[in-house]
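quick one before i forget lol
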Amino acid sequence: MQKVLIITYYWPPAGGPGVQRWLKFVEYLPDFGWIPIVFVPENPTYPILDESLVQKVPPGIKVIQHPIIEPYRWAKLFSQKKTKRISKGIIASHQKQSLLERLLLWVRGNLFIPDARKFWVNPAADRLMQLIKKEEITTVITTGPPHSVHLIGLELKRTLKVQWLADFRDPWTSIGYHKKLKLTRASQHKHKRLEKEVVNGADRILVTSTTTKKEFQELTAKPIEVITNGYDTEPLKVPLDSKFTISHLGSLLTDRNPVALWEVLSELVDEAPTFGEYLKIQLIGVVGEGVLETIAKAGLRPYVDIPGYVSYDQVLEFQSRSQVLLLLEIDAPETRGIIPGKLFEYFIASRPILAIGPEGWEAGEMVEKHQAGCYVHQTEKETLKKLLLEWFHKFQQGGLSIYPNQIAQYHRRELTKQLANSLTWESS
């Protein structure tokens, strides 16, 4: 058995999809000859908490904590509400931003590069120098965002010559979020320089989509492997909702607002007999103000239920009960490679997936490839309307069902096997 050091910011009790990937890799790595040692912050400021995930940390796993300085704590002195929203990625449109919000975004974007966790880099690297020698570790993994975590790996690689694998759960400079940070030209250049140093300094790169792989191939000749996110549950045997429930699970920020969907649903309420009697729109998680405004404008507010953030186990139950599951992405070229982690949980729920996103969206294409639902663009209103009416009629007849195929490859254990093969390649 060989030891591998995993450096991550997000770890239970943090909630959200960023936790699941490495929580599950850590669980299955020992099955493939690797002993994981996890390094996490001692006092992080997590935007979302899910205490239930603490119970899912595999027993016997060594988790080492180290203090972190969190600038978001200082920012809360000015506005706790606005700071929390920014840390969750909820950013109002420029026209609706207050002067304070614009200032906080400028500070976040230009004074904290690559991100607000930059102050953890040097102290963590110093602590890990000793740990790596003591534990005789030869392989290190960093996972981001936050991408400052990769700078820890960069320093360890330079100093100790360890084998280093950098895992990108999301892109770095090409992600749409960057455009909202009010970056100066100098800040943009620094981000790109650091990104290039990381992808060329690592021995191997992991990404979650083929689109991101192609982007990074423009920056480096280092080996890049795609290991998607996945699922680790069995289908829940729960009764379906009696309503025609259309559910979105996870943060629904304003940029992902499916305006065409709300318009179509509004029309169906007016035109299709009994549609309004059965319609239920369920939005589980953080919902942006712009989304709520559009829903209200469409006259759909009476049909909407917003439970807020719920535990991971509750998420699984909500999606298994739903009639239709929504998969949404920002309609922009830079989001084509974003594959939401929820897609794989949706697969195992075996409910029809309605994917609405940009042209050439990798996640939408996967929905259709695995026969798990349908993928449409925002502009395809008539297609969307016809599809929903067809699904509604099947729902009324008790025949709205779907059976995704060839999804076993996305089980977390299978994905960990891929990871272990990459680590074996690195250590040989």
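fyi The first strand starts at residue 2 and ends at 7.
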